[in-house]
Amino acid sequence: MKKSCAALFVILLLFQPVLAAPTNIALPDHVDTVVVPDGSGLTFRKFDGPDRALFKGRLTLSGTYYYGDNQFNDDDSKVDLFLYFTPDAATMARLPFFRIRGRPHDMVLSNSAAFARVVLSRSQRMQLMKKGAPYATGRVTIVVDDFAGEIVCDGPNFDARFVSIVHPKPAAMAQMPGVAC
Q: Whole-prediction pTM value?
């Protein structure tokens, strides 16, 4: 009997992450619910407006980055550099999402100049300062914090702050896949 109880206890300990439930947080205006998967590394901090949830914690993300002029920059005389990030499937599974609106396909990362200094060569950074230049892109594993999720244009939108690089790889120059509001 003691052996079977001990075996059951070990099994319950091993499967505890599987049995844990995600955290559900209703937005203040009740238009949707943010779901935080168990084991994501993030905890809900507060709301910043009716449709914006702020989280605390650090996350390691893997995926593809695009660094270049903001897609919505209408100023033909000035480059406004942005860092877009498309998480891979394993990373996406750990990210919070909206129950109704789903998961975003990409996110904006702040602290992009620090990212560029670590990942891009000086010549690549100079090339990106020209209007109409292709984006610097590549696969990367990074650490982020200051994670936030909100509803924009009735769709899911997430952003975070770049903290550090885990696995740098050389960047290539390419066009960014189109996105729209």
A: 0.79
